[in-house]
């Protein structure tokens, strides 16, 4: 059994773990698809999003706003329509309004009382700045894809986070990575020997959602952050 009280810092994936990105993605994409008479279920939209996003994040780095524009473009190519300029930007423009899960802010404030908190996120710096306001806590370190010029599941993003935390005296064995995506986070973090918590936000739901399916072995599984915070001694 993992001893949660041995860690000094929690590193978080942001979108899907802290911020309800699936709701944000759906609210941005559904009107676009409906305007072109494309009928897809919520699970279908999310799973197409996962395929398109992951393909666009491979190869030469592009910023996340351009990745999201590319996702809309790929929906058009896949389903036979040409998005307008407004529709192309709908997904990227929506990120600033994506909201935390109901348990996120209180759990972060609780965890901050004893632990340092950090972010490792596939996002642009300016987009995360909007999300940080919603999250209402000060993070001790923030590592974005824009800073690293790569996207998880690349281990480079984790190497940068580990190096920055080492600079403030935190060794890798004192880092606990917390994430909802096995594909983006649990697998690469485990490959570097980091301890991991899988926040299974899709517990009881069908399909793999907005992240590609993957197999990994987290040290702990919880349904939400409130459950994680309850397991740590303060």
Keywords:
6-stranded parallel beta sheet, DNA polymerase, domain 1, hydrolase activity, acting on acid halide bonds, in C-halide compounds, alpha/beta, 6 strands, 46% helix, HAD-SF_hydro_IA, Rossmann fold, single chain, S-2-haloacid_dehalogenase, 234 residues
Give an overview in words.
With 234 residues, the protein is of the alpha/beta class. It folds into 2 domains: 4-20 and 99-230, Rossmann fold; 21-97, DNA polymerase, domain 1 (Orthogonal Bundle), CATH 1.10.150. Helix content is 46%, strand content 12%. The protein is built from 10 helices and 6 strands, in the order βαααααβαβααβαββα. The chain has helices spanning 21-35, 42-56, 64-79, 85-94, 104-112, 125-135, 145-148, 156-167, 182-191, 225-230; strands spanning 9-12, 116-121, 141-144, 175-179, 195-199, 220-222. Strands 3-2-1-4-5-6 form a 6-stranded parallel beta sheet, with helices on both faces. The two termini are 19 Å apart.
The SSE order reads: EHHHHHEHEHHEHEEH
Number of helices: 10
Flag low-confidence runs: none
Residues in helix, %: 40-55%
* Secondary-structure class: alpha/beta
- Class of the largest domain, according to the CATH hierarchy? Alpha Beta
Largest sheet: 6 strands, parallel
What order do the helices and strands come in, and which of them pair?
Elements: E1 9-12, H1 21-35, H2 42-56, H3 64-79, H4 85-94, H5 104-112, E2 116-121, H6 125-135, E3 141-144, H7 145-148, H8 156-167, E4 175-179, H9 182-191, E5 195-199, E6 220-222, H10 225-230
Parallel strand pairs: 1-2, 1-4, 2-3, 4-5, 5-6
Helix pairs in contact: 1-2, 1-4, 2-3, 3-4
